[in-house]
Amino acid sequence: MRSHYKIVHTACGRDWGGLEKRIFNESVWMDKNGHQVVIAAPEDSPLFQKAKNAGFRVYAMSFSPMGLINNYRELIRIFQNEQPHVLNAHDHTDAKVALAAAQKADVACRILSCHDSTRVHNSWYNRRMYKKLSHYIFTTTDYGARHIQALFHLKNTQVFSIPSGILAPDTLEPKETARTNLAAQLACDPATRFIGSVGPVSRENGGTTVLQAFKQMQFRISHHLVLANSSADDDKAELMDLARELGISDRTHFIGCKKDVWPFYRALDCKLLALEDINNIPGEGVFRALLEAMYCSCPVIGSRTAGIPDIIQHGITGLVYDPGDANALSNFVLDTLNREAATLERVHTAREQVRRFHTIDAMGRDIIRIYRLHQVKRSRQQGWGHDLQDRD
């Protein structure tokens, strides 16, 4: 049984979002554990530049609509030269050519990572990608795995939920220190306490519910509300207007992106994730923010949509309310703040679950386990295991 693998990742994005961070973090973990990683991405993308600077072998690939034929031919050449054991394609645009090229080049294990399962349609080409060109589908949530499995009538041995593992720091700042530092940053009284959220929140997708819930509880708690990295400037302006309309603007803070989220979560007495269904379609994401908050021993409350209930077990690791129900959200925040013993028990359970199942180490081990299972399966069918032992 081979212990090390060569993996090619393809990605077409030019942003530095959750998808790209996951690829990079996974690649770093694989490299540290003796595996080889190759990345094909647009040359002007942050992923390409960071991978290159980190010493990974990289290939510039446009993945533009006009260049897909050339990309297909180039990828076949790359696969033939590199002889990878695994291809992992991460977006429909690059997957269309990467999976086909990998099949042509006889790459033994072909994976399509689907980071937004709820937006996938049952088209003829998607059926080809999901059922014919891919050996396995990786999603970021159990909800996404169930959705893809039902949509394409796949076996449960073909679709796996592999949540993005968090890269936790070696030490965490004391909660009281983090809280007083946040109060100083926001020019608040040093004794101020906070509830808040990190991530894109718009008026249509959770922001209204959060502000309305805070309005209901404002005279029952002394906390301030902090919304970090709300979506676009227009969304932020609308939410600020709504806060003024509700009379809570003096205790509501809209701040920019938090590059270091760990002190922020340590400063909060409660973290909110108030996603809502858009056009009757549940949103989907990695929900890394929930896992990071749990690791920081920060109580969490989320809406019952998409994969959030897969992470927050109601009453066990946090609390879950129906999307758009500001009254329920308000009551759950009050419950979290006022029932200290029950909250601490949920916090402890949540942190232990993240430590066991949602670190970068746990994610890496789960992925390697699937590679090895596929190797065993192929070796029985085609002698693939013997071929792998001869490759370096």
Task: Give a written overview of the molecule.
With 392 residues, the chain is an alpha/beta fold. The protein has two domains: 6-165 and 360-389, Glycogen Phosphorylase B (Rossmann fold, 3-Layer(aba) Sandwich); 175-356, Rossmann fold (3-Layer(aba) Sandwich), CATH 3.40.50. The chain has helices at 18-32, 46-53, 68-82, 92-104, 124-133, 142-152, 175-185, 207-217, 233-246, 261-267, 288-295, 308-311, 326-338, 340-357, 360-382, 384-389, and strands spanning 6-10, 36-41, 57-60, 86-89, 109-114, 136-139, 159-161, 194-198, 224-228, 252-255, 268-273, 300-303, 319-321. The strands form two sheets. A seven-stranded parallel sheet has the order 3-2-1-4-5-6-7, sandwiched between helices. Strands 10-9-8-11-12-13 form a six-stranded parallel sheet, with helices on both faces. Helix 2 links the parallel strand 2 (36-41) and strand 3 (57-60). Helix 1 crosses helix 15 (360-382) and helix 3 (68-82) crosses helix 4. The longest helix is centred in the last third of the chain and has 23 residues, at 360-382. The two termini are 14 Å apart. The model is unreliable at 384-392 (pLDDT under 50).
The CATH homologous superfamily name of the largest domain equals Glycogen Phosphorylase B
Largest sheet geometry: 7 strands, parallel
Q: What is the level 1 CATH name of the largest domain? A: Alpha Beta
How many domains is the backbone divided into? 2
Overall radius of gyration: 22 Å
Low-confidence stretches: 384-392
Number of helices: 16
Total E-strand runs: 13
What is the string of helix and strand elements?
A: EHEHEHEHEHEHEHEHEHEHEHEHEHHHH
Shape: elongated
User: What's the mean pLDDT score?
Assistant: 90
**Strand order in the sheet with the most strands:** 3-2-1-4-5-6-7
